[in-house]
Amino acid sequence: MRKFAGAASAIAVVVGMGLGAAFGLQFNPNVNSALAASSDTYRHLNLFGDVFERIRSDYVEEVKDADMIEAAIQGMLTSLDPHSSFLNAEDFKNMQVQTRGEFGGLGIEVTMENGLVKVVSPIDDTPAARAGIKAGDYITHIDGEQVMGLNLSEAVEKMRGEVNTKIRLTIAREGSDGPFDVELTRAIVKIQSVRHRAEGDVGYIRITSFNEQTESGLKKAIQSLKKEIGKDKIKGYILDLRNNPGGLLDQAVAVTDVFLDQGEIVQTRGRNNTDIQRYNATRGDLTEGKTIIVLINGGSASASEIVAGALQDHQRALVVGTLSFGKGSVQTIIPLGANGALRLTTAKYYTASGRSIQAKGIEPDVVVEQLKVAEGPVARTPYSEASLPGHLANPNGDDEDSGKKKGKDAKGKGEDRPEGALPTDSAKEAAESRARVEDYQLAYALDLLRGISIAQKRAQR
């Protein structure tokens, strides 16, 4: 179809030029400028071809044509903005695994250490957990093949595979007499993007990314916390979006909708003024109006910022932490068959109040820095959307350094006692004190939420 449309257009242009010359008609200047632009485009394409041929014939080492073309496409896309890119077939496959949130595998989070695969944590109710694989185990061989010499992605690819197929891992464990083999059967593994726990009378929910499992995981977490703490006893929820790089737009909308009864969540605007899409909340706040505090930091980006911005705009949650990353653009994945896919920036998103956070970020209502145990001043290197070369400008014209204008500051110095001193000698309070140092932002949010709950009860009397 495209070829036919192109051929018809070319004939129309030629016929039009002939008739215009015959009858002395004026040409549309827009047509002339379009033809000139087209000619310029083909001149640059010829330049590309000349350079390509020169590299093929004269470069000091032989280069594969496919590699050069892929690099050229990648360069073309990355010159647009930091988030547009080309995904080859393997990268596209890995991206689909991440966004789908499930794959055929063993269910272990791993890292690379000293050339071996080290188990960070087995995921609950997976083949790895059922086989007794533990955090800290080292995987030395996969089906008899040494792991030494493989990179992490290659090792992970070998452990993934079709459901119901068997795999043999050789494990080295501290305290064991020697390496031992474990045979496992691959199964469907779901990536847990949502984790939760009770913090006394407060429900703590951590979302690490936005994949296809996030909405259902959040709903299950809320129901579980209601049951564990007690529906009438729960004072509120802390939604932890720190270091969450984002993910699927529809999941960000769905997560926000869980906490709202009505109103616009986010809108996206494309190149044309008419290309606007609005996403609205539906009735049904699963938290039943309980107090919500959202934790963010410089690692909270994209979909995380959509959630935080919407809940902040609707005054449904108090946002606590530090300035978020500031990625206010939307990428569309365009499959290219067996060649991979394009990840192309196609729109910018705006919060419910009409603000763009592009290269600006979400400013928390209460600024709380994380405590750092260090000797002397700690040098801080800001890293955000605004620091990326070639980032898109904020369409509202806001200053990219506006993150310096922050909300109410809550310093990491809470109690009037000598630094490092504990409130009492009790083991429980000692543990609580250590937890505050390890995650001061969470400790602050818990205190703040309980304080708001007390104030609300007093106001109702």
Task: Explain briefly what this protein structure is.
This protein is an alpha+beta fold and 461 residues long. It has eleven helices and 20 strands. It is globular and about 85 Å long.
Q: What's the arrangement of secondary structure elements?
A:
Layout lengths: L1 H22 L5 H30 L6 H14 L6 E3 L1 H12 L1 E4 L2 E6 L2 E7 L4 H4 L7 E5 L2 E2 L5 H8 L6 E7 L7 E6 L1 E4 L3 E6 L2 E6 L6 H16 L6 E5 L8 H11 L4 E6 L6 E5 L10 E6 L6 H11 L4 E4 L7 E7 L5 E11 L14 E3 L39 E3 L16 H12 L1 H21 L1
Parallel strand pairs: 11-12, 12-15, 15-16, 16-19, 19-20
Antiparallel strand pairs: 1-18, 2-9, 3-4, 4-5, 5-6, 5-7, 7-8, 10-11, 13-14, 13-18, 17-18
Report low-confidence residues grouped into runs of 5 or more: 1-28, 375-381, 401-408, 411-425
Count of individual beta strands: 20
Percent in strands: 15-25%
What's the number of domains? 2
Under CATH, the topology of the largest domain can be stated as: 2-enoyl-CoA Hydratase, Chain A, domain 1
pLDDT averaged over residues: 84
> Cα-atom Rg, whole angstroms?
28 Å
Terminal Cα separation, in Å?
71 Å
